[in-house]
C-alpha cells in the first residue's frame, strides 16, 4: 500500500489534526500565539501544496506498519474536502490573528477556538466540520451554476429516500 493510500485509510490524518488542535489549544491556554502560527503553517502547507503534505501524518504512516482494516471514521477519501477544511481553518485563523493583534478582547480568541475544536474533533471522533462545510458549499455552488456537472438535485435524493422507505 502506497503512502497516499496509508494516509487516506489510516490514523495518520487523525494524528496530523490532533497535533494541529493541540498546538492551537496550547496557544489559547498559554496566551502565546507561536504554537498557533506553527499550526497555521501546517494548514497552509496542506492547502497550498497538497493534502498529503502533512508532516506528522507522514511520520506516523512511516512508523505504523500495521495493516488493519479501515473504519469508516478513519477514511479520508475526499482529499479536496481535507484541503477545503484546511483552507477554511486558515481563513478563520488569519482573521483571528488580525483581531488578536488589534486587541479585540473576546472575538479573536473565540475565532481561534473554532479551528481548534474542529481539529480536535477530527482527531478524536473522526468528524471534520471543515470538510462538511466545504463539501456543502461546493455542492451548493455546483447546483447553482448553469454549467454544473452534477445531474442529481437534492430534491431528487429526498424523493428517492421517501419512496424507498414506503
The gyration radius over C-alpha positions equals 18 Å
The number of distinct helices, counting runs of at least 4 residues, comes to 8
Q: What structural category do the secondary elements indicate?
A: mainly alpha
Portion of residues in beta strands equals under 5%
Helix content range: over 70%
Note the gap between the termini: 43 Å
So what's the overall shape? globular
Low-pLDDT segments: 150-162
Number of domain units: 1
Average pLDDT value? 80
The main β sheet shows up as: none
Q: What order do the helices and strands follow?
A: HHHHHHHH
Number of strands: 0
Summarize this structure briefly.
This protein is mostly helical and 166 residues long.
What are its keywords?
166 residues, mainly alpha, globular
Layout of secondary structure:
Layout: H1 3-9, H2 12-30, H3 34-48, H4 55-63, H5 79-101, H6 107-124, H7 129-144, H8 154-165
Helix pairs in contact: 2-3, 2-4, 2-6, 3-5, 5-6, 5-7
Amino acid at each position: 500500500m502506497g503512502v497516499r493510500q496509508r494516509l487516506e485509510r489510516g490514523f495518520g490524518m487523525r494524528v496530523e489534526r490532533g497535533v494541529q488542535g493541540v498546538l492551537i489549544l496550547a496557544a489559547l491556554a498559554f496566551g502565546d500565539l507561536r504554537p498557533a502560527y506553527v499550526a497555521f503553517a501546517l494548514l497552509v502547507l496542506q492547502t497550498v501544496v497538497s493534502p498529503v503534505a502533512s508532516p506528522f501524518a507522514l511520520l506516523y504512516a512511516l512508523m505504523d506498519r500495521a495493516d488493519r482494516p479501515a473504519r469508516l471514521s478513519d477514511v479520508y477519501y475526499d482529499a479536496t474536502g481535507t484541503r477545503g477544511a484546511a483552507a477554511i481553518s486558515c481563513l478563520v485563523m488569519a482573521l483571528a490573528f488580525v483581531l488578536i493583534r488589534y486587541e479585540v478582547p473576546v472575538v479573536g480568541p473565540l475565532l481561534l477556538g473554532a479551528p481548534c475544536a474542529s481539529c480536535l474533533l477530527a482527531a478524536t471522533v473522526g468528524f471534520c466540520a471543515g470538510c462538511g462545510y466545504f463539501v456543502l458549499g461546493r455542492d451548493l455552488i455546483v447546483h447553482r451554476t448553469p454549467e454544473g456537472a452534477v445531474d442529481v438535485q437534492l430534491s431528487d435524493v429526498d424523493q428517492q429516500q421517501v419512496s424507498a422507505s414506503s
